[in-house]
Amino acid sequence: MFEALSPITVADLGVRECGPDSAPTICFLHGGGISGWMWRPQVEALQETYHCLVPDLPEHGLSTAIQPFTITDAARRVAELIHERGHGGRAHVIGLSEGAQITVQLLGSAPMVVDHAIISSALVHPLPGVGLPGPRALTLIFRLFAAPFLRSDAYVHLNMRYGNALPEQYFSEVREDTRRMTANSFTHMLLENQRFRIPAGLDQVQVPALIIAGQHELAIVRQSARDLAAALPAGQAYLVAFSKRGAEEHYWNLQRPELFNAVTRAWLTDQPLPPELIPLRS
Q1: How far is the C-alpha of 249 from the C-alpha of 241, rounded, in Å?
Q2: Chain centre to alpha carbon of residue 233
Q3: Distance (Å, whole) CA 248 – CA 261
Q4: 87 and 64 in contact (C-beta within 8 Å)?
Q5: Phi, psi of 73 (to 5 degrees)
Q6: Residues with Cβ < 8 Å from 130, sequence gap 6 or more?
């Protein structure tokens, strides 16, 4: 089971590793504010046929001591992890949300370590009509509206149901990640997420990249998927649609793990994608 995997340390990241010694490697990159446990349904389904690397990114989970979190630094550390532990020095890379942004940055800075990529809900434009506060204002927001409730189980339950739309079965993991959050990690995570843009040089990258957004996520997420597909010569953009709640489609690897796993198997082996995915038109 995923929980029983003993973590190793590579590039100062806490990493869980499993799978056959001779199998192709998948490196899973989690979203902001949670940690590598979110890939449990994928690891448990794929670990018989793939070598799996699941790092906790800087300022998250087992890697909370690595500060500050930046997308550029995280991508550098992931490249080092793949170079050192990926079979043949390469890996398929699967990222969701902030992990997807890191996957995009990795394609821009170290495409030679990536075999195939799956990029789910990567934001590459600022949210429209929302001016991002500066670091001091974000720290104040955290201290007033988040810090007093981090140890409240009721707060975690409410956030899982009405905020992130994470399945209840992961309550203990979400509670642990919530309690780890600090004003600094909160601020760094939001600033990096909103400031990220498509890196230069993606038009030279030939890595097959599957780019996915939820049909009911914010329009700017779907536009980001279109723009990434246009920037990547081997990029293809699709929608996943099963809920009117964009938050559920955002974490579709947990809400619809069988579909996510089927898409993963198909994309990584150059097979037709499941018909549930809808091509995203430009």
Answers
A1: 7
A2: 22
A3: 16
A4: no
A5: -65, -40
A6: none
Write down the number of H helices and E strands in the chain.
11, 9
Q: What stretches of the chain adopt beta strand conformation (E)?
A: 8-10, 13-18, 25-29, 51-55, 91-96, 114-120, 209-214, 235-240, 278-279
Tokens of 64: 């909370």
How many angstroms separate the CA atoms of 19 and 38, rounded?
A: 18
Q: Per-residue b/e over 28-49, b at no fewer than 16 CB within 10 Å?
A: bbbbbbbbbbbbbbbbebbbee
The per-residue pLDDT string of the chain (282 residues; one tens digit each, 9 = 90 and over) reads 677 788 999 999 999 999 999 999 999 999 999 999 999 999 999 999 999 999 999 999 999 999 999 999 999 999 999 999 999 999 999 999 999 999 999 999 999 999 999 999 999 998 886 667 888 999 999 999 999 999 999 999 999 999 999 999 999 999 999 999 999 999 999 999 999 999 999 999 999 999 999 999 999 999 999 999 999 999 999 999 999 999 999 999 999 999 999 999 999 999 999 999 999 987
Residues 6 or more apart whose Cβ sits within 8 Å of residue 139: 183, 184, 186, 187
Residue 218 is encoded by which pair of tokens? 């914010």
- Chain length of the chain: 282
Distance from the first to the final alpha carbon of the chain: 41
Q: Which residue has the tokens 């198909």?
A: 266
